[in-house]
Amino acid sequence: MSKITNEELLNSIKGRFDSDVTHISEPFGLLTLETSREKIIDLLTFLKTDAALQFIYLTDITAIHYPETEKPIGIIYHLHSLVNNVRIRIKVFVADGDVKMPTATTLWNGANWMERETYDLFGVVFEGHPDLRRILNVDDMTVFPMRKEYPLEDPNRVDKRDYFFGR
Amino acid sequence: MRTHPVYTDNDPQTEYSTLNLGPTHPATHGVFQNVLTLDGERIVSGVSTIGYIHRAFEKIAEHRPFYQITPLTDRMNYCSSPINNMGWHMTVEKMLGIKMPKRVDYMRVLIMELARISDHIICNGVLGVDTGAFTGFLYMMKFREDIYEIYEEICGSRLTTNVGRIGGFERNFNPILLEKTRKFLKEFPAALKEFEALFNRNRIFIDRTKDVAAVTAEDALSYSWSGPLLRAAGVDYDVRAMEPYSSYEEFDFEVPVGSNGDVYNRFLVRNEEMWQSLRLIEQALKKIEKEPSDIFHADVPEFYLPPKEEVYNNMEALIYHFKIVMGEIPTPNTEVYHAVEGANGELGFYLVNDGGRSPYRLHFRRPSFINYQMYAPMSRGMLISDAIINMSSLNIIAGELDA
């Protein structure tokens, strides 16, 4: 099994998407990069269809919320090239009030529920998704519970605050 | 995927009926609801509803210290909870850069493979029940009990095990455990052989399962299937072989692969995986014996709770105990994805840490959730009875589906 290195992988991505990929890092050997909403489908399509890379397996789609930043909601894709046995992580950050993404269901059928889950928990609207409904929570829920502004338990409770633990 | 072009949703000639299969139907073994549109006994279309036991584990995990997240992972795939536990420990250890002693790795392999067997016992046993053969299930169930007794020796509990700690195991393997494992290794092959003799060439079973819900490799990959289901469709993707963790690279085992992804193939793949797990356990036992017998955790006092008697008599242990419980130990500001081969697929942990005592974000890549989404589309055109055994052979665990 030929294994391509992260460097080779990054070079071939840079060849096509030079300045569109930013924030490149390699935590624990997993190539991580950021791109824009406009470029994400192009990038995913390139990774999936490129004959040398073959990222044919969509491992996961999820999101993260950084409330204090300019673009607080990040959508995170994990892809796996089963042929080369290498993984890649791609992030796209979007601004609050404009939490929209193009859907990846056009590339992988499996993206369907992953995107529904991300919509359900973070309110990311995947445009073009065939059936974007809540999946884990009840349909008439009005909030997106995994966002940081929704507390897990009673917000008035003080006995678990970090400053009681010297932080 | 087998398609049946005869049926369309809006054929004006036919009158369809709607059936609510589930959420608590005895044939579905768990909380699964499927609203089916039926033409007689044929399924025209189906909609899966999930989330009945959603417990917001990801949200809860953002408010718990790392070691308190282990019991949450138990409650995902509760048929093989030790694999989830170990997967979580390994994720945190990867983030912290803790390297395990070899003996701990082998101990983990032993427990994880036992868990895999117990999971496959249930799945294949129940598949037998759903096709009308109760006997095989009873033969096998006795050995799940034996496996649970082995769990009890190491962690005291049976189903939601919470076994192991970040940095190793909470206690050493005792001689009874090793003896029980040896007994299991001696007795189980005969039962598994008998089980295979009951089913593998059984005409009724083959008629019920062969070519039912066959899935092509392309479809399986497109739907991000993993584990025995993907392998039954002919893709040899096994995390243990592709990205070995816990010293799996030192073990000698084979990855069984099926050909057309039907229920029969999945059954055979799982059976073969049990044989391979037996081989792994045997090797793990031998390897454990070669290592110094008093090592059962890594030397990481910042993360591994000291024994209670030391906490009372030793200042350093007391300080570490306090710091661990209060979450005073700094952790790196990083992100990590770690995957283990769960009993029904790639179980991934995506952990984003900001240096605090609990994760900033923790996402579980749950194989049941991802495998289940093909269920409704693939049921189109199937008979209800086929759809039922299809669900059994997908091995969807409700706790993992809904997290």
Query: Which spans of chain B of ≥5 residues are poorly predicted at pLDDT below 50?
Result: none
Broad structural category of chain A: alpha/beta
Mean pLDDT of chain B: 90
Poorly predicted segments of chain A:
none
Count all strands of chain A and give the number: 7
Order of helices and strands of chain A: HEEHEEEEHE
Structural class of chain B: mainly alpha
SSE string of chain B, helices as H and strands as E:
EEEHHHHHHHHHHHHHEEEHHHH
* Percent range of helical residues of chain B: 40-55%
Main sheet record of chain A: 5 strands, mixed
Strand content of chain B: 5-15%
What summary fits the major beta sheet of chain B? Answer: 3 strands, antiparallel
Radius of gyration of chain B: 22 Å
What is the domain total for the residues of chain A?
1
CATH homolog superfamily of chain A: NADH:ubiquinone oxidoreductase Nqo5 subunit
User: Could you please say which CATH topology of chain A applies here?
Assistant: Beta Polymerase, domain 2
Describe this entry's structure for a reader:
The complex is a heterodimer of chains A (167) and B (403). Chain A is an alpha/beta fold. Chain A has one domain (6-165): Beta Polymerase, domain 2 (2-Layer Sandwich). Helices cover 20% and strands 25% of the residues of chain A. Chain A has 3 helices and 7 strands; from the N terminus they run H-E-E-H-E-E-E-E-H-E. Chain A has helices spanning 6-17, 40-49, 111-122, and strands at residues 22-25, 31-35, 57-65, 73-81, 86-94, 100-102, 125-127. In chain A, the strands form 2 sheets. Chain A has a 5-stranded mixed beta sheet. In chain A, strand 1 and strand 2 form a beta hairpin. The longest helix of chain A has 12 residues, at 6-17. The radius of gyration of chain A is 18 Å and the shape is globular. Chain A starts with 5 loop residues before the first helix and ends in a 40-residue tail after the last strand. The mean pLDDT of chain A is 89. Chain B has 403 residues and is mainly alpha-helical. Chain B has one domain (59-402): Cytochrome-c3 Hydrogenase, chain B. Chain B contains 17 helices and 6 strands. Chain B has helices spanning 57-61, 70-74, 81-96, 102-130, 134-155, 175-199, 203-209, 217-222, 228-232, 239-242, 263-290, 308-313, 315-326, 367-372, 375-379, 384-394, 398-402, and strands at residues 17-21, 33-39, 42-49, 335-342, 345-352, 361-365. Chain B has a 3-stranded antiparallel beta sheet with strand order 1-2-3. In chain B, strands 4-5-6 form a 3-stranded antiparallel beta sheet. In chain B, a hairpin with a 2-residue loop joins strand 4 (335-342) and strand 5. In chain B, helix 4 runs antiparallel to helix 11 and helix 6 packs antiparallel against helix 11 (263-290). The longest helix of chain B is centred in the N-terminal third of the chain and has 29 residues, at 102-130. The model of chain B has no long low-confidence stretch (mean pLDDT 90). The chains are: A alpha/beta (167), B mainly alpha (403). Chain A binds chain B through residues 27-28, 30, 32, 56-60, 62, 64-65, 76, 78, 82, 85, 87, 89, 108-110, 112-114, 117, 121, 134-138, 145-146, 152-153, 160, 162, 165-167, and chain B through 50-51, 54, 56, 58-60, 62-63, 94-95, 219, 221-225, 235, 237, 242-243, 326-328, 334-337, 339, 346, 348, 350, 352, 356-357, 360-361, 363, 365, 369-370, 372-374, 377, 402-403.
